[in-house]
Each structure stands twice: as structure tokens, then as C-alpha cells.
User: Which sequence fits this backbone?
């Protein structure tokens, strides 16, 4: 079954073999969860949105043409879920999970280095929270999903050059906020 | 080419997304421009630091939740569940009974015991009717409580519960109409629309659906509700549909769908 491409599976789902969506869930839910987490920074919200993405795949399966890659369609649906939620209610951004890293720190032998890394990661996460949903989405696709600009352009429905410019702007903004926060930490 | 244009290539360099020509261009510029070299080093560091952001493991219940959502969807749309899924569901069954259901079970047990040992036949009948009325009421209360849940998937579950309620009263209809107009999640609103369409024989439901047309701002909801009006041949929807058409920022696809609906209703 694993030899079947994502597109051919989704086309089977489209004609009514709904159970096969489970196979696509198994293949892609980790990646999708990672993307949604990097946009929301909230585990439960990311998980909830993940179910919504798969729900919409079922509901709007007729719209899957099989022309582009399945994962691009999946990310485009995820983008709509994020946008719809953002329009109605500001996404709940919480810093709770920043403090959940004790187990991660425990894995490091050099405690001081580990604490520094933890602090930097926490500052960076807080800096990302200041960015707009759109900026977090484009950075998540670019940095964490390592998608090429051409692919991101297809997902976001904009041209490749616009992706290049927006990634650059988001990185610049993030850098500024992050540096400010790190300077504040040092002064404190 | 300005420094800004070279800097726009930085992210592409870091993820290996540059053409050989762009790579060469950037290398040549970095050799001659100290400021951009420094900027690139900063971007490279930030790119590496972003990799330190910790992603908490997802819940082990994620797959079970997905299976439940899939099975609910199949039930709602009348799709049959395959025997393989039924067996898997049975094997994966975990008793997760909510407090309300526990209450229902306890009430059934008590009433059953009482009826078995104490009451006469006609009395039994009357008590069974009373009991079934109470269970029905409890189902409604449970559904209304679940609609308040902060999780969208729980709210979808609540909406799907309405298919179990034989005679939804005005409380349920009001709650569903309020969800249709105010829920922040478009999937919940879509499921609610589906649930309400099954009760479309009730005049208050039809009235509520017509009134909801102008309250929907999501293109997906606007499409779905226009489709519903056509299906119900609800001519009272003509006015609000025309009102929607007046919106300047209306999605093009929605606009043509609404025109099509209006033509179908006239």
C-alpha cells in the first residue's frame, strides 16, 4: 500500500474510499502538526487545527484535482484553517510550552550551555510570537518544512519572487525582535 | 543590484534553493561587501537557532481522534463503515464515558431494577415512557453543554449528536442557530448547517437559515448556505442573497454561485 503515491490515494478518497484518508494521516500528520505548532505555539490548538485540516480534506475532497502535490494542497488547507481562526478570534498564543523544556535540558551534560540554549530558544519563540500569522506561516514553511520558494508560492497562491521578499522581511523582523530580547536578557 | 536584493537570497542559500547563477552572484557579492557578509552571518545564526525551538510531542490520542472524526463524518454523510474499521474500532475501544452518559446508565439500571421487582405492567409502561423522556432531555442537555466546549472537534461532535435527538426542541434549535452564526470555527459552522438542514421542515429553522445568510463572512459558508437555499427552494432568501451581492469584497466564486442561486429561485 505504501507504494501508492499520495495523489493516487487522495483521488481514491475523492471517489468515496474515505478510509484511505487514514493512510495519508499516518504519512503526514507529524509534519502538519509541526507546521501548525510553529504557527500557533500551542499544542492543543495545533492538534485541533490538524483535525480540522483532515476534516476539510473529507468535506472538500471533490476539489482535489491531483494536478499539484497532495502536500501542497494539505498546506493550503492548513493555511485557510489558520486564516479562518485568526479572522474570528486571535490565535491563542501561549508561552506555556517554553517552560516544558526541562526534560530537553536534562539531556545535556553541560548545564550552563544547556540553560543558555534553552533561554535562546525561549527568546526566539517569544520573538516569533510577535510576528503576524502570515509571517510565522511563511517562516515555518521555509525554515521548518524546508520547502522551496516555488512550492511555498503554490501553497500561498502568490508568485515566487513575492515569497523570496516576504521570507527576507520576516527574517529581518524576527532578527530585530530577537536581538532586542537577548540584549534585554543580558542587561537584566 | 542593491544590497537588499542580495540579502533576499540569504534564506535561499541556507536551504539550498538558489540556482547556480544566483549562488555565484551571491558569492561574488559577499567577497566584496563586508556589511552583507556580517548580515549573512547573522541570518545564518538565526536560521540555526530556529532549529532549537522545541516542538512538544503530539498527543497519543491524535489518531484515535482522527478515526472518530472520520467515523462521525461517514455516519453524517451516510457512508458505510468498512468491516476492517469496525474490527479495528472494537479492538481500540476504550471506555471513555462522560459523566452525563454515566448518569444515563445509572438511571436506566435503577429504573430497570425497580420496574422488574416492584411495578405492575401498565405502571411499567408509563414509567418507561417517563424514563425515555428523561433520557431524551439528558441527551439534549449534554449536547448543549458540549457546544460550549473550547475544542472545535468537541463542538462538531455535539452538533453530530443532534441526529440522535428525535424531536429537537426550540432550545436545541436556538443553540444550533447561534452556533451557525457565532462559532469562531468554520468547520463547526459547516457541520451545524448540515445538522440544521436535516430539520429544515421546521419553519423556525428555515427562518433562522434565511436570517443567517447576511451574517456569514467566510466564503465557504456563503457558498454552502447559498447551495442550501437552492436545495430548499427558499424564496425568502432572495432578499438577503441580493444584499450579499452588494458587498464589494465578496469572493468571485461566491458571487457567481449566488447569482446562480438567485436565478434558480426566481
Assistant:
Amino acid at each position: 500500500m505504501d507504494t501508492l503515491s499520495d495523489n493516487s490515494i487522495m483521488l481514491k478518497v475523492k471517489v468515496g474510499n474515505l478510509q484511505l484518508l487514514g493512510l495519508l494521516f499516518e504519512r503526514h500528520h507529524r509534519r502538519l502538526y509541526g507546521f501548525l505548532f510553529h504557527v500557533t505555539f500551542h499544542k492543543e490548538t495545533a492538534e485541533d487545527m490538524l483535525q480540522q485540516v483532515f476534516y476539510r480534506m473529507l468535506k472538500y475532497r471533490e476539489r482535489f484535482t491531483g494536478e499539484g502535490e497532495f502536500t501542497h494542497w494539505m498546506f493550503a488547507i492548513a493555511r485557510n484553517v489558520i486564516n479562518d481562526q485568526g479572522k474570528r478570534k486571535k490565535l491563542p498564543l501561549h508561552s506555556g510550552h517554553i517552560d516544558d523544556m526541562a526534560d530537553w535540558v536534562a539531556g545535556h551534560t553541560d548545564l550552563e550551555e544547556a540553560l543558555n540554549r534553552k533561554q535562546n530558544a525561549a527568546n526566539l519563540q517569544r520573538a516569533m510570537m510577535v510576528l503576524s500569522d502570515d509571517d510565522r506561516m511563511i517562516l515555518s514553511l521555509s525554515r521548518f518544512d524546508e520547502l522551496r520558494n516555488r512550492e511555498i508560492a503554490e501553497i500561498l497562491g502568490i508568485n515566487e519572487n513575492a515569497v523570496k521578499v516576504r521570507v527576507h522581511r520576516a527574517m529581518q523582523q524576527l532578527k530585530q525582535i530577537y536581538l532586542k530580547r537577548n540584549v534585554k536578557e543580558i542587561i537584566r | 543590484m542593491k544590497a537588499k536584493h542580495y540579502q533576499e537570497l540569504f534564506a535561499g542559500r541556507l536551504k539550498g534553493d538558489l540556482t547556480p547563477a544566483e549562488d555565484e552572484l551571491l558569492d561574488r557579492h559577499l567577497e566584496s561587501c563586508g556589511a552583507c557578509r556580517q548580515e549573512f552571518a547573522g541570518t545564518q545564526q538565526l536560521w540555526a537557532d530556529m532549529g532549537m525551538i522545541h516542538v512538544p510531542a503530539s498527543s497519543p490520542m491524535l489518531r484515535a481522534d482522527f478515526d472518530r472524526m472520520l467515523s462521525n463524518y461517514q455516519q453524517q454523510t451516510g457512508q458505510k463503515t468498512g468491516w476492517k474499521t469496525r474490527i479495528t474500532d472494537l479492538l481500540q475501544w476504550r471506555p471513555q464515558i462522560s459523566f452525563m452518559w454515566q448518569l444515563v446508565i445509572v438511571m436506566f439500571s435503577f429504573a430497570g431494577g425497580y420496574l422488574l421487582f416492584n411495578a405492575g405492567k401498565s405502571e411499567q409502561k408509563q414509567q418507561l415512557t417517563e424514563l425515555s423522556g428523561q433520557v431524551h432531555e439528558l441527551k439534549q442537555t449534554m449536547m448543549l453543554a458540549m457546544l460550549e466546549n473550547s475544542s472545535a472537534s468537541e463542538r462538531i461532535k455535539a452538533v453530530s449528536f443532534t441526529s440522535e435527538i428525535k424531536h429537537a426542541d426550540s432550545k436545541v434549535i436556538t443553540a444550533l442557530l447561534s452556533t451557525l452564526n457565532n462559532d469562531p470555527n468554520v468547520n463547526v459552522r459547516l457541520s451545524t448547517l448540515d445538522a440544521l438542514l436535516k430539520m429544515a421542515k421546521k419553519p423556525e429553522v428555515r427562518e433562522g437559515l434565511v436570517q443567517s445568510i447576511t451574517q456569514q463572512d467566510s466564503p465557504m459558508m456563503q457558498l454552502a448556505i447559498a447551495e442550501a437555499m437552492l436545495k430548499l427552494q427558499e424564496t425568502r432568501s432572495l432578499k438577503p442573497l441580493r444584499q450579499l451581492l452588494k458587498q464589494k469584497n465578496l469572493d468571485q466564486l461566491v458571487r457567481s454561485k449566488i447569482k446562480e442561486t438567485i436565478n434558480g429561485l426566481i
Observations:
- Chain A touches chain B through 58 residues (CB under 8 Å).
- Residues 95-106 of chain A have pLDDT under 50 and may be disordered.
- Residues 160-187 of chain A form the longest helix (28 residues).
